[in-house]
């Protein structure tokens, strides 16, 4: 269970990183309604949830690798470069799983708010 908690923590951390980079490209995200994402949680297919579980496992590995590199970085410029590279790899992993980044992020947000959905996805990851 400890492994699963760490796995999903890493996935949610990466989702936050991807959301931060995409937010810079959008208008003020505070003007975006949050309700559709909550409603979308009801509509995730089993395939999407399985893709999320699979991508999360790979992202946990990427996150661990880049966390070590960040800790060894000499300065802020090097850290920023490492973060950008990590973000690109995580986005590639999500897309390779068959999900769009927005869908991955929406599932990540939904499992934070819905313990039953979290348990369901954890079961798929095992």
Give the tags.
126 residues; mainly alpha; 6 helices
Q: Can you characterise this structure?
A:
The chain is mainly alpha-helical and 126 residues long. The protein is built from six helices and no strands. Helix 1 crosses helix 3 (46-72), helix 3 packs antiparallel against helix 4 and helix 5 packs across helix 6 (115-125). It starts with a helix and ends with a helix. Residues 20-41 have low confidence and may be disordered. Residues 63-97 form a coiled coil. Residues 45-121 form the DUF4168 domain.
SSE pattern, N- to C-terminal: HHHHHH
What is the 3D shape? elongated
- The tally of beta strands, per DSSP, is 0
**Class inferred from helices and paired strands:** mainly alpha
Average pLDDT rating? 78
* Biggest beta sheet attributes: none
Radius of gyration: 15 Å
State the separation between the terminal residues, measured CA to CA.
10 Å
User: How big a fraction of the residues is strand?
Assistant: under 5%
- Give the % helix: over 70%
Low-confidence stretches: 20-41
* Contiguous helical run count: 6
> In oligomeric terms, what are we looking at?
single chain
Region (Disordered): 21-45
InterPro entries: DUF4168 (IPR025433)
Signal peptide: 1-25
Coiled coil: 63-97
């Amino acid at each position: 269970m400890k492994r699963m908690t760490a796995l999903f923590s890493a996935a949610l951390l990466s989702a936050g990183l991807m959301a931060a980079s995409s937010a810079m490209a959008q208008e003020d995200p505070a003007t975006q309604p949050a309700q559709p994402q909550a409603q979308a949680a009801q509509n995730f297919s089993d395939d999407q949830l399985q893709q999320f579980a699979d991508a999360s496992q790979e992202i946990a590995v990427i996150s661990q690798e880049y966390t070590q590199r960040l800790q060894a970085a000499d300065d802020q410029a090097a850290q920023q470069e490492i973060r950008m590279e990590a973000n690109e790899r995580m986005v590639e992993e999500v897309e390779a799983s068959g999900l769009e980044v927005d869908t991955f992020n929406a599932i990540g947000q939904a499992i934070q708010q819905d313990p039953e959905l979290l348990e369901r996805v954890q079961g798929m990851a095992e």
